[in-house]
From TrEMBL:
Organismal lineage: Bacteria, Bacillati, Actinomycetota, Actinomycetes, Kitasatosporales
Protein family per UniProt: Belongs to the WhiB family.
PROSITE patterns for the chain: 4FE4S_WBL
Signal peptide: none
Cofactor(s) listed: [4Fe-4S] cluster
Protein name: Transcriptional regulator WhiB
Length: 78
């Protein structure tokens, strides 16, 4: 978990990564969180961790809850 120390989200408001709702302000927060993830040197490790741990809430590794759920479903079907 040492990779977390290098994450671009360190120092950001954690609430940005856990938006309330899927419309309006929630969508805006998801876009802002993903923008942070795009400049993150450990986004891949973050996404891998979130998938392995079954993180069902928030933005992790540049993905939304819905996107990770799709990834997990696809992996189960393979």
């Amino acid at each position: 978990m040492k990779w977390m120390e290098r994450a671009a989200c360190v120092g950001e408001d954690p609430e940005l990564f856990f938006p309330v709702g899927t419309t309006g302000p929630g969508l805006r927060d998801v876009r802002k969180a993903k923008a942070v993830c795009r400049r993150c040197p450990v986004a891949g490790q973050c996404l891998d961790w979130a998938l392995r741990m079954g993180q069902t809430t928030g933005v992790w590794g540049g993905t939304s809850e819905t996107e990770r759920a799709r990834m997990l479903r696809a992996a189960r079907l393979r």
